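Please check this:
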Amino acid sequence: MTSPLSSSASSRVEDAVREVLPGVRADLEALVRIPSVSATSPDEVRRSADAVVELLRSAGLPDVVVLSSARPDGSPGMPAVVGRRPAPAGAPTVLLYAHHDVQPPGTPEGWASPAFEPTERDGRLFARGAADDKAGVLVHVGALRALLPAWGPQDGVGVVVFVEGEEEVGSPSFSAFLAEHREALAGGAGSAGPDVVVVADSDNWSVDTPSLTTSLRGLVDATVTVRTLDHAVHSGMYGGPALDATTALVRLLDRLRDADGAIAVPGLRPTDGPEPTGLPEVTEERFRADAGVLDGVQLLGSGPLAQRLWHRAALTVIGVDVTPIERASNTLAASARARLSLRVPPGLAPEAAFGLLRDHLLATAPHGAHVEVELDESGQPFAGDVDGPVYDAARAALARAWGLASADDVVHAGVGGSIPFIAELVEAFPAATVLVTGVEDPDTRAHGHDESLSLAVFERALLAEALLLDSLA
């Protein structure tokens, strides 16, 4: 399936990438200007899907369609775009994934420049979606623009480009989409499925060092509700003996961690299972700088940071419903609730992780407070293999694109985040080799204010994908 990267072939691909790069950069900026927030703006997501259709057609794909499927609750899913080039006889089919929806921008004052107006500063392009993941969309487009003009009908590889429209809200219709449109994703009628899947939606070790993502944590989002009274009452008349729900919620959340800050939930603690060894070193200095940890604030847990980030559970309070200060009165709150985000380590099913979390919350309710725990969202973890000719070709392509001395300098890294649909793709196409590649770097700030794309990483990622596809041919 793969061939070594010859110097002449690499030079030809590099020249083609340099030629298409300015147009690809301009098209990225145009796509970023569409505020395709899947959580709130379905019309803009549809407009973004239409723009992706034109991009894939401009790249030379002969068959491009907009598809969608219903979500589990019956509501319509966001539009995805699927483009296809049939595989020549005997050639493999490669499925290229990215998503065109984005996270909400947050408060305008958090941005140094408008969130949906791409702005270049110091070699980085700042905008919501500039990196996550519209850069991934344009990496695919750019690689095809560089390669397809030189490929005749019997040359190259089969290509399926799948650009999803609701990844940022947890891909709620993905299971139905996969069942309904499996043939399109497989590469056409009669195809057993793609031989290689490239997911361009992850991170790199640094701007100057590429990485392949070899593991991802799964996800459980849950809402915990605490009730102590059947109605709110005067804090002076009843305060003291009566427990307010906000205090009960705070005490309950505090019991999720031990004195060192490690998760205290049985079954989710670091001591509850084996952990991998031989992981790349993540230094505390680098982690504190990348995460923006304030001076004097201690890191939680113990053991190597790589294990804490990639192969242990992480539990975060991501939202709280209590009385806001501007509406506060001298009242005991009857109820309060919090949204919890649990990142699930590889090897543990999200359903089992939710059960452990729920049981611990119910068992540790303070002073007899009534506690309810509801599952809002879940996603499977992923652990990939790093052996075989496709991985060898990917490492060689990344090393060439980044100018590394050896393919051995490409880092195999886990990522603490979640891309739940990857596990479903693996289940649907078990024979495919899955590569999780990156257009981001530690300074990207995906999902946050001032999200940005390193333009150097963008060019290298585009070149690496073009080199990989050429070698697979």
Q: What stands out?
A: Residues 7-32 form the longest helix (26 residues). The chain has a mean pLDDT of 94. Residues 68 and 79 are 5 Å apart (CA to CA).
